[in-house]
Amino acid sequence: MEKICVAVRVRPPVSQEVSNGLYWKVEDNRISLHKPLGTPISGVSYAFDHVFDQNCTNAKVYELLTKDIIRAAVEGFNGTAFAYGQTSSGKTFTMNGRENDPGIIHLAVKDIFQNIQMAIDREFLIRVSYMEIYNEEINDLLAPENQKLQVHESLERGIFVAGLREEIVNNTEQVIKLIELGEVNRHFGQTNMNARSSRSHTIFRMVIESKGKDTTSSDYSNSDAVRVSFLNLVDLAGSERIAKTGAGGVRLKEGKHINKSLMVLGNVINKLSDGSKQRGHIPYRDSKLTRILQPALGGNAKTSIICTVAPEEIHIEETKGTLQFASRAKRITNCVQVNEILTDAALLKRQKLEIEELRKKLQGSRAEVLEQEILKLRNEMLKYELEHEKLAMELEEERKSHKERDRCIKEQQMKIDNLSNLVSCSEQDRNSVQNSNGHPFSQRQYQSLEIWEQSLKEDSNDNYSIFQGDAFRTPCFKAAPNTFVAKRSDYSMPLDTSPIPDDFGNVADEDLWLRLNKGQATDLDSLQMTPARENHSFPSIDASPGYSIDYYKEEIQKLKQQLEHAIKEKDELERNNAEQLFLNSQLLQEISELQHESLLIREIPPRLCESVANCKDIYKDVLSMMQSFVADEKSSTAKLLSSTSDIAVCLFSTLETHFSMDKDGCSVLSGENSPIQEQWKVLVEKLKSAATTLASLQAPTSEHQHLMVPVHTSKNEGFDFGGANASWMEKLGHELNAIKEKYQILDKDFNHNNKLLESFKEKCHSLERECSILKEEKTFLVQKLSKSSQKLELVTDQRDKLSKDLSLEVQKRKELEREITRFSLAFARRQKALMTFHGECKSKIEFLRTLSPGSKSKTLGY
Ligand SMILES: Nc1ncnc2c1ncn2[C@@H]1O[C@H](COP(=O)(O)OP(=O)(O)OP(=O)(O)O)[C@@H](O)[C@H]1O
């Protein structure tokens, strides 16, 4: 199995856009989104096999991403490279390149012919085709008259496009000319995003057939086999937002088809990235593109995807979409095998050689033949004796290892039980963790995991070691069975004299062994694609998936790392939590203080209301008294008093409303220059002038000569009285002074309240700020919590998977045991047959020895 290789390429910016300063940063094989001051935005960072920045050349992309695929294609492996991305992100630039920077297709073609020249022991036949999928119809780009071609599938050819022209080519130049011809017929169009936008998906295909040159070789197993590989180089049309491309009419129709087929491609990738177990039906048939690319997506092909992205801020959403597509594609695995076809000629040749060998045996003198036969039989006998001893030893060892395995399986069973307990506990704890502190594992679970890992380690050192030097390994190990099979196949050659019983052949049979060995298993997809072909694993890749102890160790290591990471996160969360609690307690304290203050403040307005009412009463008394001094109602003094009265009424009503509003909690805070204060000042001034006027009017003449008007003195800020009827005047003066004092008190209260309200307001603001900070922190913490619970789920899933794998492993072991039993039976039978054969040989030799040379042929009856 082999993962798809996925790379991302960022093209240089093409427009001077209006930006907020967000930008994509490329570091090694990672691409991440950053804020203007360089802070990375969390959750928008992706890693791939390669990430190419805007300065990267096509040659470098080819070297790192496609060169291996091309080499493998020449060796007989299917290969596919395709470019995926938003419109105008640089797909065509990457695949086709430009004059001074040739693209992947040109570089690949050149490389193929260079590789062919180096493979001197093989001869090649190369065929080239070039097609496009335009509005969900397949057109031949090398023969424009071939339109609306159909996709078919047959046992012989696998999935193929019927009626597509294939040109046989011998060199790079021929291919380049064909590509140029195809480019002329390709659909391009102008959009707002790209002056030359590809309106179709194009597939440039090379079929590489090769055969060994040495046809006289006696190794008739492979020399005549023909290798056929398909290389697809695909330039997809770009996904586009109709609003951005400004597409209408034909372009709109094209855009819809493009988006639809890319959506199907995305669905296929999604399904494939789910992993083989959950994957279910893969909707390859939903579009022509996915149907044609089927072998490249989860099938028999080495595949690489280059995802191109635009760096501009306006394309951030599209770029994120492409990166998510790439991330999913990274999870896909393909099963790559070389495609070989055993031709009729090769089979014929094999049979001819066998007949030739038999004929040779019949030729020559009979005596010589007999001598040779005796020698051969002796050698074989010795060989069988040796083999016999070795097998007896192996059987003994096998019995021992069998016992050992029994023990291991029991232990494994116990561990699986432990694991299931662990997983169910983890599930419970996770629920409780989500309610409390975000801890992904309890201490107990962690310890269980440690114990489990430790015991697996011990297993790997002790128990599993018996498999390592053992010829009967589990199907995960390949080396020994191959040598074993090779040894067996020697014996099966001279069929007429073979001592091996028929039913033993079932056990040592190569096919059966291959079936037992996962690494050599034939892939069903490839059977459909290449009938009557022998499939061999790609040599550089270990095809056995992880049921070995190393696999479990690796998995445990990963789990442990995740666990440590989760614990770190949990610690951090706990720290944050403690800080939050501290902040919370502080806040609570401040809030209670503020509540106390606000209670006090709330008491002020009613008190003020009362004061205002008192003042109003006093004022009314004073005014009526003043008015009583004025004889003429039309005099200026009377007018002054009445206007004063108006202002006072107005002032008192304003004050009443103001304080009653305060009382209701909807106060509008007054400043130094509030209208109330202004009115108050005016009133005071008017009262003073009225008093002065009255004094000046009353003092010399009036009917109220006995009255002395209070005079404002700068000394004591009060009023002075003199003259007759002093006691009454004194009383009046006292009252006026009392009013003045009350006014001053009120004024002070008023100012004090204003200050209190101001500070209250400030505190409110700071509380609001703190609240919003707390809210942000809370959201951040909630996000973190949900992330770590997701991780926990992942870890639990992985553990489930592991336990499933373990149970699979146990099943496999059981199967292996059954095989061993069968083998032991077969071995016993074989031993018996060997003994018989041994006896026969001995008697034959004895018999031959007793014969005199003259009577040999007669006695033997030849
Ligand atoms: N790596 C690069 N270096 C320089 N120029 C580039 C690069 N990638 C793309 N461009 C330029 O950007 C423009 C758009 O590129 P291109 O046509 O390859 O995009 P596309 O993804 O194929 O678009 P569409 O899907 O619409 O066909 C072209 O002018 C191309 O020359």
TrEMBL record:
Keyword Transmembrane helix (UniProt): no
Protein's UniProt keywords contain Membrane: no
Coiled-coil parts of chain: 348-429, 549-576, 729-819
Binding site for ATP: G85, Q86, T87, S88, S89, G90, K91, T92
Origin superkingdom: Eukaryota
Domain annotation Kinesin motor: ranges: 3-332
Keywords for this protein: ATP-binding, Coiled coil, Microtubule, Motor protein, Nucleotide-binding
GO biological process, one term: mitotic cell cycle
Gene Ontology MF, one: microtubule motor activity
GO CC terms in record: condensed chromosome, centromeric region; microtubule
Family annotation (PROSITE patterns): KINESIN_MOTOR_2
Record-stated family: Belongs to the TRAFAC class myosin-kinesin ATPase superfamily. Kinesin family. KIN-7 subfamily.
Name of the protein described by the UniProt record: Kinesin-like protein KIN-7N isoform X2
Gene: LOC104609007
